[in-house]
Amino acid sequence: MGRGFLDQSFDEILHVIDTNITGTLALIHKVGNDMRSRGVGRILITGSIAGFMPGTFQAVYNGTKAFIDSFSWALRNELKDTGVTVTCLMPAPLKPSSSSVPT
Prior knowledge:
Elements: H1 10-38, E1 41-46, H2 59-78, E2 84-89
Parallel strand pairs: 1-2
Helix pairs in contact: 1-2
């Protein structure tokens, strides 16, 4: 699964940061400006409950999700009077119920 922060190559660390933060912000900056200029739009950001907990052996991933979770709240406030909404989806691990497991 995960690996300790110091056991990862820095290229792997940058890949997670670029995927979860840099790519997300670049997309939001582009479409957010278009939406704001039109006065309407909805931005859905994929956050995670992982951003609310220390991520032993997942420190970089959890740290990037903490950034995204916080960023989404800040952006929502910045855009509150523009006609653009910001929602942060917070997926959590799911435990299958006994009724959903085939027998």
